[in-house]
Write a structure and sequence with these properties.
Elements lengths: L1 H15 L4 H9 L11 H5 L8 H16 L12 H13 L2 H5 L3 H68 L8 H8 L2 H14 L6 H7 L2 H5 L2 H7 L9 H15 L27 H19 L1
Length: about 300
C-alpha cells in the first residue's frame, strides 16, 4: 500500500508541476462558488447540453470556449497511461466539488488537469451531437411545412401543367406545320393564360433533387445564430473526397473572420458537396451566402 501511495504522490506531483501559476489558479477557481451563482464553474462545465435548439447549440459551443479559456489544453500528458487517465476522469466527473476541494493540492490539480483536457474533447462531441440533431430537426420541420405548402398549391400546379401539356401536344403534332404551331397553340390557350401557367410552374416546381435543399435555403437566419461560434470553435478535417466541402466550410470561416484575410467572392467555391447537395452556382454575395451557408452546414451534419 505504501508503494502504491508513494507512486500516486509522485504521479500527482509530476502532473501538477507542469502547470504554471496562472494555470493552477484557473483550475483552483473552478471549485469556488461565486456569491451570485448556485453552481460552481466545474459543475457548469461538466453538465452536457440536454435540449435540441439553436440556442442550446450556441450554449454548447460557448461551453467549449469556457473550457479552453482555462488554458490547460496545451499541457503535455502523453506519458500518462490511458487507464490512469480514465480513472481520474471518472472520479472528477461524478464526485462532488466539495470532495475534490478536500484532496491534496497536487492530486486536486492533477485530477482537474486531466479532466479538463478530456472535457474539451467530450464537449466538442456533445456540440456536434446537438448540431446533428438540430439540423435533422430543422430539416424535418421544414419538410413538413413544405409538404403542407405543396398540397395547398397542388391544384394550381396541376392546372398549369395541363395547360402546358395542351401546348406541348400541338408542338409534337406532326400534322401541324411549323409555321402554324404558334397560331394553333394560341387558339387553344391564349398568351396571357400561358404566361400565368409558366409563372405558376416556375414558382411551385422544385429543381433540386433533394427537397431538403429547398427547405434549408430558407433557414439562413436560423443557421446564422450558431454558425460564427461553430466556425471559430470547431476545426473540421476529412478525407480527400471531402475536400470540396472543407473548402466551403473554410471559406465561410475566413469570411466570418473578416479583416485583411477576408476572401473575395470570386474565390467562393462553386460545387462544394456531393451530388444532391446544394448544387453549383456562380459565386455571388447574396446567392452564395443565403443558399450555400445552410446547405454546407447540413452537408457537414450528414457527413461528420
Amino acid at each position: 500500500m505504501r508503494v502504491r501511495d508513494r507512486f500516486a504522490t509522485r504521479l500527482f506531483g509530476g502532473l501538477s508541476v507542469r502547470l504554471s501559476a496562472d494555470q493552477q489558479q484557473a483550475l483552483q477557481s473552478l471549485l469556488v462558488l461565486r456569491e451570485d451563482q448556485w453552481r460552481t464553474p466545474l459543475d457548469v462545465l461538466r453538465t452536457p447540453p440536454t435540449r435540441i435548439s439553436a440556442s442550446a447549440l450556441v450554449q454548447a459551443l460557448h461551453r467549449i470556449e469556457q473550457i479552453r479559456a482555462v488554458g490547460v489544453h496545451g499541457v503535455d500528458l502523453g506519458d500518462l497511461s490511458e487507464s490512469r487517465r480514465l480513472t481520474l476522469v471518472r472520479h472528477a466527473r461524478v464526485v462532488r466539488v466539495q470532495l475534490l476541494a478536500r484532496l491534496s493540492e497536487d492530486r486536486r490539480l492533477a485530477t482537474l488537469l486531466v479532466f479538463l483536457q478530456h472535457l474539451e474533447r467530450s464537449a466538442t462531441d456533445d456540440a456536434l451531437d446537438v448540431f446533428d440533431a438540430f439540423m435533422s430537426k430543422l430539416t424535418l420541420t421544414g419538410l413538413g411545412r413544405r409538404k403542407k405548402e405543396r398540397l395547398r398549391t397542388l391544384k394550381d400546379l396541376d392546372q398549369a401543367a395541363l395547360r402546358l401539356r395542351t401546348v406541348a401536344r400541338v408542338l409534337l403534332d406532326s400534322g401541324v406545320s411549323p409555321a402554324g404551331i404558334r397560331e394553333a397553340d394560341f387558339a387553344l390557350v391564349d398568351a396571357r393564360t400561358l404566361e400565368v401557367a409558366i409563372d405558376t410552374v416556375e414558382a411551385l416546381a422544385n429543381e433540386d433533387d433533394d427537397p431538403a435543399v429547398e427547405v434549408l435555403v430558407g433557414a439562413y437566419a436560423t443557421v446564422r445564430r450558431f454558425l460564427p461560434a461553430m466556425l471559430a470553435g470547431i476545426a473540421l478535417e476529412g478525407t480527400p473526397g471531402a475536400q470540396p466541402l472543407l473548402d466551403a466550410w473554410q471559406f465561410l470561416g475566413r469570411l466570418e473572420a473578416g479583416g485583411r484575410g477576408k476572401p473575395r467572392w470570386a474565390d467562393a467555391p462553386g460545387r462544394s458537396y456531393p451530388e444532391g447537395g446544394c448544387g453549383g452556382s456562380s459565386p455571388g454575395p447574396g446567392k452564395w451566402i443565403f443558399r450555400h451557408t445552410p446547405c454546407v452546414s447540413w452537408t457537414v451534419c450528414s457527413t461528420h
